[in-house]
């Protein structure tokens, strides 16, 4: 859950923290699997689900931001190769 919170909240402050979002998604999924396998031994289903959901949201934001950066870089490359009439 903590990695998910850091990923989603940090995405708007520092883009680098969004890189932990896939880890939050993975660890949340692993924790949920362990909780379902041995419910008497492990607790924290809600925290694991929150980590999984926040990790998925952070991963989606990371994907959209990466596509945006690549698109802007491509646009800048194309725009700089066109000769200016001025």
Structure commentary:
The protein has 86 residues and is mainly alpha-helical. The chain has one domain (2-81). Helix content is 74%, strand content 0%. The chain is built from three helices and no strands. The radius of gyration is 19 Å and the shape is rod-shaped.
Keywords for this entry:
86 residues; mainly alpha; 3 helices; rod-shaped
SSE blueprint:
Layout (H helix, E strand, L loop, with lengths): L1 H10 L9 H17 L7 H37 L5
Helix pairs in contact: 1-2, 1-3, 2-3
Summarize the structure.
With 86 residues, the chain is an all-alpha fold.
Helicity level = over 70%
C-alpha Rg (nearest Å): 19 Å
Q: Mind summarizing the main beta sheet?
A: none
* Mean pLDDT value: 86
Euclidean distance between termini CA atoms: 54 Å
Strand content: under 5%
**Shape, principal axes of CA atoms:** rod-shaped
Number of strands: 0
């Amino acid at each position: 859950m903590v990695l998910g919170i850091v990923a989603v909240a940090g995405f708007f402050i520092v883009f680098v923290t969004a890189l932990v979002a896939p880890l939050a998604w993975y660890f949340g999924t692993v924790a949920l699997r362990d909780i379902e396998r041995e419910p008497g031994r492990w607790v924290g289903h809600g925290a694991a689900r929150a980590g999984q959901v926040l990790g998925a949201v952070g991963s989606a934001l990371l994907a959209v931001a990466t596509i945006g950066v690549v698109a802007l870089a491509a646009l800048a490359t194309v725009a700089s190769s066109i000769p200016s009439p001025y």
